[in-house]
Amino acid sequence: MSGVSASAAVETDTIRSALRMAKASLRRSDTADLDAEILLAQLLDVDRAFLHAHGEYALDVAQTRAFQSMLERRAAGEPIAYIIGEKGFYDLDLLVTPAVLIPRPETELLLEEALRLTTSVPAASIADIGTGSGALAIALARQRPRCRVYATDISADALAIARQNATGHDAAVAFFGGNLAGPLIDRGIKVDLLLANLPYIASADLKTLEVGRWEPRLALDGGADGLSLIRELLCQLPSVCKPGAHVLLEIGASQGAALRQLLRDRLRADADVLPDYAGFDRIVRFAVN
Q1: Distance (Å, rounded) from C-alpha 194 to C-alpha 130?
Q2: What is the CATH number of domain 15-84?
Q3: What tens digit of pLDDT does each residue of 141-182 get?
Q4: Which part of the chain has CATH 3.40.50.150?
Q5: What would the pLDDT profile of 34-57 be if each residue is shown by its tens digit?
Q6: Shortest CA distance to 43 belongs to which of 10, 5, 77?
Q7: Is 147 helix (H, G, I), strand (E, B) or coil?
Q8: Where does CATH 1.10.8.10 sit in the chain?
Q9: What angle do CA 281, 282, 283 make, to 5 degrees?
Q10: SS3 sequence, 155-181?
Q11: What's the CATH class of domain 99-287?
């Protein structure tokens, strides 16, 4: 999105002309039409179908100015999720701010695998390590109401967002602040299933990526090779996992082989690497002996 012009003023009083001017101001974006519609629908608290059916609906001055401000933020590259303050994940609409990583569709694969593993274990104890917005923990608590779901994050700001999301979705999740699985270990909690979407981008790579401009570095930076926090978590697994517990880790697109070797060396565990829909490494699945 960098370099997108927002110079076209939105001087209009109808939905149709507002969208026409908005799309012109975001013309260098591949998703200009969609972006403009999402932003205006959010501002007016309507769905996108309403925009197409009511092109002559009049905007007032305050709405016109607010829409221009949203367009300027989007033109500067800010993710839409932060501009509108929410992001869909699975069947949830989640509050998101720059304090949390924006939930990705790929992470739904992690959730789906967790749901599959708990189908026959209705009262399992589950840990979501590095919960961020709470997406995984909340979805699991709603889909598996008999399970005990714990979630941790080192960021107090992220935990505040996660708790708001859990309250908004009436999800029973126990949140703890602290590093990785440490808060659970300190409380003597052991789980049947542990899942984590930890930072896995190498520090040097992060400097060149657009995502690093907007989303919290704490949720992205995985150290020199992208695996620093994952290594740290592996050391904690024997203390937080019950014998035979399953572990699911989201990983970078080319980290599967390195993680499999790491697991053999550290835990003498064999792992499966599950691809995403594009065929890239995405999830490492293994059991703790």
Answers
A1: 11
A2: 1.10.8.10
A3: 999 999 999 999 999 999 999 999 999 999 999 999 999 999
A4: 99-287
A5: 999 999 999 999 999 999 999 999
A6: 10
A7: coil
A8: 15-84
A9: 115
A10: CHHHHHHHHHHHHHCCCCEEEEECCCC
A11: alpha beta
